Amino acid sequence: MTSPSSQRTVIPKERRRKRWSWCGYYEKTARGIAWDTLREALRLFEGKSSEPRERFAIDLGCGAGRDTFELLRRGWKVLAIDNQSGAIRLIRSNVRTKDRTRLRTRVVSFERTFLPKCDLLNASYSLPFCSPEHFGSLWRKIATSIRPSGRFSGHFFGINDEWMSLSDMTFHSRKQVKFLLRHFKIESFHEKEWEGKTASGRKKHWHVFSVVARKL
Description:
seven-stranded mixed beta sheet, Rossmann fold, globular
């Protein structure tokens, strides 16, 4: 699947701002509740199913595991993927004993990851951290991995986001996000801009698309 070029301003690598320490981010978010997009996707799965069955989800850019643990709690098999080994160690150290047989983990970057077939591909606040040069390939992997009637849940950063000037991140316009989802039925789509803070407490202007979509 090919998307229009993401709009961004390129700046030299030496001028890129350090957003936060990933270890610090994981510590601050480890006990957070699952994101709304994941909870909505799970509600849609549960509302349609007439009989319970074990499903398989990929949590891409899983971080400290707030979504991974919710999926496991609801009986899903999960492949949790992150490029930071510290994130995977946190998940493995915190997973409940009864959930361990349903959890697989992988430490790998976006550009090198392999995505097996799944019922749900969840990417909460992770996709923007894929570099523009690799985003098209990553999205094709995502779209291919999701089975028909499976779902995508996750977030994209908009072009008005404060981090737009960072050349190692990917941003999209509303039109570009809709283009990426052209082979999906959009079930939930929210665009929001607000003045907020990062996990480290720094003030930031956010521009985020929150999406749940079912593959046709």
